[in-house]
Specification:
The chain is about 5% helix and about 50% strand. By secondary structure, the chain is mainly beta. The strands form 3 sheets. It has a 6-stranded parallel beta sheet, with no helix packed on it. The longest helix has 9 residues. It starts with 8 loop residues before the first strand and ends with a strand.
């Protein structure tokens, strides 16, 4: 069973039901020292911002995430997740600063958001493929700048299906 390890993320949600994180606030991490260290020694671990596992009916809306040392938001083995109107920003050369990682999730939506970083804007993967991979992912009306934009099934060999990407802009992405 997948679990978020303590110390891996500044904020952890495990088994959340009907949770809403909404507001115009900013979660700011001091990523620069971590990025400098990771450029010298890639094997050094750095924490991410928000990790959620085994959650359902979760909404994250109108928040800003700045300068995460590692990935910003990870959802694993979760269902009915809405991420709406968020901003995620890290410098283009910041290593491994994924905007969102969607691992073995069902019915996940990212919409109306801005993501500019040094890695995947959103990565949709099968996780460890214990729960049948990711299914029903909708990515629409987003702006991706720098990094890799939207990466689908980029890490492992499991199942990622029913993914729709529409009405998004990709600027300076690879």
């Amino acid at each position: 069973r997948f679990r978020m390890r303590r110390g891996c993320y500044f904020l952890i949600g495990n088994g959340l039901r009907g949770f809403v994180l909404e507001g115009s606030g900013t979660v700011k991490a001091l990523g620069a020292p971590w990025w400098a260290l990771r450029r010298k020694q890639h094997s050094v671990w750095a924490p991410g911002m928000l990790g959620c596992a085994h959650c359902s009916d979760v909404t994250i809306k109108d928040a800003t995430f700045l300068d995460s040392p590692h990935g910003n938001i990870v959802f694993a083995n979760s269902t009915a997740v809405l991420v709406d109107s968020i901003n995620i920003t890290a410098p283009q050369d910041a290593p491994n600063t994924d905007g969102l990682n969607v691992l073995e999730c069902k019915n996940f939506t990212l919409r109306n958001s801005f993501i500019s970083n040094g890695d995947d804007g959103i990565a949709c993967d099968d996780g460890d493929n214990y729960f049948g991979g990711s299914d029903g992912v909708l990515i629409h009306d987003n702006r991706f700048v720098n990094g890799h934009g939207a990466s689908i099934g980029s890490v492992r060999n499991g199942t990622v299906k029913h993914v729709i990407v529409r009405d998004c802009s990709f600027e300076n992405t690879s």
